[in-house]
Amino acid sequence: KKMKEILACSSGGPMSTHGSCNSSPSWISSLACVDLNFAGDEEEGRGTGDGGTENDGVDNEVTIKKSSSMTTQEEDASQEEADTASNPEEGAEVSAPEELSLQEDVQDVQEETHSHAAQHSARGRGAKVVMYIKYAYSGALLAFSIVILVAAIFTKQTTATALYNINSTLAFFIFWFLILYLALIEAGLNCMVGLKPVDPTLYKDSHPLSWKCTKLTNKGDNLDRFIIGRQFLDYSSVFLTNLMVSSVKNVPLTVMGLPQGVSDVFLRGGFAVTLVTIVIGQLVSQMNAAHCKLDWINNWLMVGSTYAALAIEASGLLHASYLFQRVVGFIAGRPVEMVGGKLGTFGRAWFWIRALGSTALLFFSVAATIKALFDGNTTMWQGVPAPVSLLLLVALITVMGSMDALQIAVYKVVHIPVEDLAKNPVALKNTRFALHGTNLRAFLMGRQIFQTVVLFMIAKIISIRVTDSDENIFGVSDGLQKFFNFGVLGAFLSTVLASLSWRILANSFPLAILSNPFTMPSIRFCLFVEGTGICAVSWLIAAVNKKLLRLHPDEIFIGKHAADVEEDHCLDLSECLDLSESTSDSSIQTDVIYTRERY
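Given the sequence above, the corresponding structure tokens read:
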């Protein structure tokens, strides 16, 4: 009778919430269910990844309940044995054929259980094989890209060494400084945002330079100002990196005796510099700084970069974005407060002078770029007509801006009541998909890769190259023209038109961004890019980098509670992710909580 109950339970009988079968109260049926479900439990345990630290309280509770359940079940079993002894007829032995049939059924159940476990293990081995393959080809591509870039620099086949006669050794060190500096400020932004809610006195003594940085950014609205100024530093680094290793127009490449097609793809096409920038200049640093924020920004270069970013914002160079913000706020019916809060007469006048000056500079940058394109004085690939280049530029700026806006909209949408979100089924569907499972992490990584590729393509189109034999743009002086040749106008134009303006737009109209017909294809494409594993070697390099730099988790210095607080904050243009608002949709709430934990 008990064996039949076990088989009934194993073949789909009702289950209790703790994994025991409702159809049989005995300890045997409990063990049977645990045995049948061990593969799934093992997968759940492996999913935590931290040795169970996240669910210690839950595990203890389950252990107590199991112990209590076992005690009750043992008492039941003892009572049943006593009943059987007092009434021998109920304990009569089953016939041999029936017993054999039951044994065969049990054996089938056990074989099915072990088969399920074997399939699960096989899938795990298969995933590991795929992972190792991704590591291998990603590492090979990265190593080859580094070698071919270095070879191009030392054979004077780059713009910096061939056109500007920069010493090859100097160009080599400038190139790697720009890559490493980009890594510092890319991850530095995440550190500043993550450390904002943490009490600075907790790390003032252990990390004095980190304290200097956060002391600046935590004051008033300086974090917003830092984000805007840092964006220009970021894009300027990319444009200068492109200058160091971009190939010269109309000159055949003869690097390492490679076929012309290979040289065209890796050097002239920019694949090599893009891959190196993504892996070493962005992903590796962001992976390590995610949990080692204090160690990452505890250096004088980050302190100087913080001051530089705030100074760039204060100069008014990027105040055109504030003007755009006010226009968007007026359209949305939400008045925007002046940057810095309420200002006096002089403060308002100074703000408008900088905003109008920045807007005038933006128009000049657009006009200068268009003129350089039609005059053939950019680094755009040879043979591409100027009108085509201009249309491609507009398309790339739109794509890059929409990717930035999509990231902001995904985080901004958690502030919207579920009732309002449900009125827009397209936005609701896209939000669910973006927040489901590990999609958000994969989307952010794929977006980072794709956006960097697009940024280098934009740099290829609008980086101005006017030689001594060419006429200066709009007749400016030679000194100013050489300054333009370093990509300053392109970096400024890209920062305002391809990034900040779109972030402001998404901050005001997140549902419009999430409900447009290109949102779902964009998310899926980013997931595909991440799934290719082209940058998978970033994880290995990050592990080595962490050892070499001796980076330590923040909780060592500030305690686990404070570290958990900083991890709960995510990047937005003006505020961190707030989950205090309740929602009536449990599935969205679950996805949002999962998103916060995984971020």
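The CA atoms of residues 107 and 560 lie 48 Å apart. Try to locate this feature in the token string yourself.
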